[in-house]
Amino acid sequence: MENSPEITTDAALLRPEGVSSLALGQLASLTGGQLLPGLQGTGDAAELRVSGVSIDSRAIRPGDLYAALPGARFHGADFADGARKSGAVAVLTDPDGARILGEQAALPVIVVEDPRAQLGAVARTVYGSQPQDGTGLGLFGVTGTNGKTTTTYFVNSILRALGETTGLIGTIEILADDQKIPSKLTTPEASTVHALLAVMRESGMTAASMEVSSHAIEFDRVAGVRYDVAGFTNLTQDHLDLHGTMQAYFDVKARLFTPERTGRAVVVVADDDDEWGIAMARHARAQLGADNVDVFAMRGGVVADREGGPQRRGADWTLHSMTRRGIGHAFELVHRDGRSLRVSTGLPGEFNVANAALATLMVLASGVDLDLLQRVLDEHDPLTTDVPGRMQLIGTEPTAVVDFAHNPDALARALAAVDPPEGNGRVILVFGATGDRDKTKRPLMGEIAAREADVVIISDDDPHGEDPAAIRAEVAAGAHALIESGRARAAEVHEISPRAVAIRSAVRMAGRGDSVIVAGRGHETVQEIAGVDHPLDDRAELRAALEDMQEGRWEHQ
Question: Cis peptide leading into 16, omega within 30 of 0?
Fold first, then answer.
């Protein structure tokens, strides 16, 4: 766009240019915090102008408010002097941070009990990221355990086909139209999120989609953000190292579906036994009003009320006439009033049918005309877009796929998606489990692997600070227990490390009619072992192994 800011490749430095500075006293009032003058004097402090916000003292620009937040090992207040030297005009912190800064703090300080919770509102106000005059981005947020990334890519693809200029904030990357910015967090910190939204708006973008993880909600990374439409994919076991229980995990996700966070919602319910999908549908309808929530049922259609019989209103949309189309599916979405949409996706697996349906219905819920949406789906096939590391097809004969599946439900779905038709081939799986994360899911994933795959190769994911061999043993215990019970499909379980060797071993074992799936890391390009990052891209390793096989560097069965 002419006269738009150049988009940098460093997300931490993304800033809009058209920021009108605000008085520090105004921000103190916004937060309800106490303004301490520092060495500036009370009157001067309130009139200081703030033009940016950052929690990273190394990314401070002149005119910034430095948000000094408590951390696991250090307090942000410990780095306030570096922020001051880089041009910070004031500090936002908590009482502990104020004590660290002391009575002779060089900069004025706004003291609040929970500065992280206030950061979103402050950044939104400073950057003007979501103006009230209707000129903001159309904003779509997707939460759930599995499918967030794929669904946001689907939403982005449909919007582009509709002629929108789009942005995307997610696990793999941040997209600002055609500009790509590497992403380290599923959702960046609130100060960066609001700066990104402001840059996108200033750069001429009209809509954006975001992944909204439970971590993002729990740690206020989306504080101050309000979505036009929020979508829910599913809830299965993951992140219990943070949340403790499934109910607590659900409660965090449910915070997205409130009037403060979103205007409309679309909720996927897998079937009439989907406890968490049904609970989210009920919660969203109660919070937003039934007319502002579309419930999509993959199977069944009754949204049960656990407090006393079925609700009078069941699912709004249901799945009809699903058929295979290549490795993907064609299907129809039918509304209870008789309206319908014909949809197809080229990505394999019924879970991608759910993701495609969710994306389609989210765009429809934003106000797009149904006939226009149908025309775009027919003419542009936007739901066959490539999603890096998500059921990404690397080769055929054997079918070779890389997927991010790193929890029990996602692994089971991915294995079902690559199962050769009519039992004409084997499923060969390479996977592992992440270190320093929920240990309870490791034997569960081993059990699922032995139940759904013919050959199980257990290797290393990202061990982080744990012993890789110990992690492999916990996963293998689940696989071997199922085999000993006589209920396993797998005839072979191998432990092979390093992972690149495991991938090559899988390809060596494969016949042309088999499927090789490398699960757990998806798009990731480094593997962390004992604090050291080692280059490793499952897609590149699998592609290289297939090329060696095809060029006859080893005998292929």
Answer: no
